[in-house]
Amino acid sequence: MKLIFIRHGDPDYEKDSLTEKGWREAEILAERVAKWDIKQIYCSPMGRAKDTCSCTLKKTGREAITCDWLQEFYYRVWDEDVNEWTIAWDFFPRDFNNWDELHDKDKWDQTKIMKSGDLDKHAREVYEGFDALLEMHGYRRNDRNFYDVIEHNDDNIVFFCHFGITALILGHLIGVAAPAIWQGMMMAPTSITVLGSEERIPGEASFRVQTFADSRHLLEAGEPISQSGYFTQLFEG
Prior knowledge:
By secondary structure, this protein is of the alpha/beta class. The chain is built from 8 helices and 12 strands. The strands form 3 sheets. The protein has an 8-stranded mixed β-sheet with strand order 5-4-10-1-11-12-9-8. A two-stranded antiparallel sheet has the order 2-3.
C-alpha cells in the first residue's frame, strides 16, 4: 500500500481558500495526480484543502471522502515564556531544542505545555481516525506500534490536507515525536509525501517514507515553490 499526502496550495488563510498562485499550483498538481492509479481520495474539511482537491476531482471525475480528523492540527497551547496561547507547532527552535521530552515519541504530548491545550486528546482522536481508515483498507495497528496485514494490497490512497496534520500522522506511522517533524521539516504547498508499507515479514507491515515534500510538478511547469510556512529562502535547484 502507498499513502500519499498532499498539502494544499498556496493559502489565503483569511478566506480559508487559495491565493491566485495557489489555484495555479492546484491546477498543475491535478495534471500530475490524474496520471496515478488511485484507490481512494480523502480530504480535509477545510476550505484550502477542499479547493486544492477540487481541481484534481474535476480533472479525474472522481469523488473524495471528507474526514473531519484530517483538518489542520490547529490546537493551541499556553506558552508560559511569552504568556500567550500559540499554535502547538509554532515554538521557537531554542525552546523546542532545549526540551528533551518534546523529542520523545511517547512523552511529547504529555508535557505540561501540550496538555494545557489537551494535545494528548486531540492527537489520539487523529490516530484513532487514521487507524480506523487503514483497517478499512486492510491494515490493522497492533499493540507493538506497527500493523497487522489483514489483506495485502498495492492500493494508492491519497490525502489532501495540511502540513501540521501530515506531520502528526507521519510521527504516528514511523515512531517519531510530532514536534521533531514540525520543527525540523517542512512541506511546501502542493508538495507530495509518500509512504509505502514494507512487509518483510508475512502478515506484518510498517510504513516507510519514500518521498518527502516533492514539488517537482511546480518546477517542471515553471511555477515557483511557495514560501508559505518557511522562514528562509528556498532552494529551487
